[in-house]
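Worked example

This section walks through a single chain of length 226. The input is the sequence exactly as stored; nothing has been trimmed or padded.
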Amino acid sequence: MNWLPLGLLLVGAFLIFCWILSKLLRALGVSLLKDRVEILKNYVETAGIIAAGFWAFFTFVVKDTPSLELSRKAESELTWHKIGSGEICQADFKVALENIGTTAFDVVKIHVSGWKFATLVLESEDVVKYLDINTTQRSELLFFEREYLTQNGPEENIPGPFLGHYPPKIAYTHSFQFAVKRIPDQLMLFKVEFYLKRGKQSTKDATYSWGQVCEGLTPEKSGDKP
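Given that input, the structure is written out below as tokens.
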């Protein structure tokens, strides 16, 4: 929000008030030098009070409000590693969360999901096709889903990654690893959702990565084995 017009409006209103007051005093016959000096002093004091109030409002409300928000940065990367002969590979979904704000927050819950879907096929008349991640999450096969809470039940007391307190400039990184069977022409999408809280303020953030199963890895042929 641009607060400059509001400041100009306040200053303009004060000047109009001063002009009306001077007309009123002139009509009442206030002409002594002492009275004029006292009036000028009151003008200056009033102007100082208004200016100080506007400065305090701008500094502590307008300027500081964005810094009090839950500012964070979530990033992820998906890489593949060969296991044995390469018929099975390891998906390494590396996720990082950093507090880039000036106030601390807590991560009270995370939700990890994975989807498998076929490689996109372009028809003869197609030049490009949009990959809609939201459509993929709704319509494709969800093969993995897990939720971590700050307080798990006694039957599932799993220490969850990313859960806890994040002071300013603190970052945390974790890798979710999956053993995946090589399947031709298949893609996988991995996603992490973060549930953040500070006092009564709460919000949600997410990061995701996707790629072809065992991308860049070539399986060994039977003749390649020693």
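What to look for: The chain has a mean pLDDT of 77.
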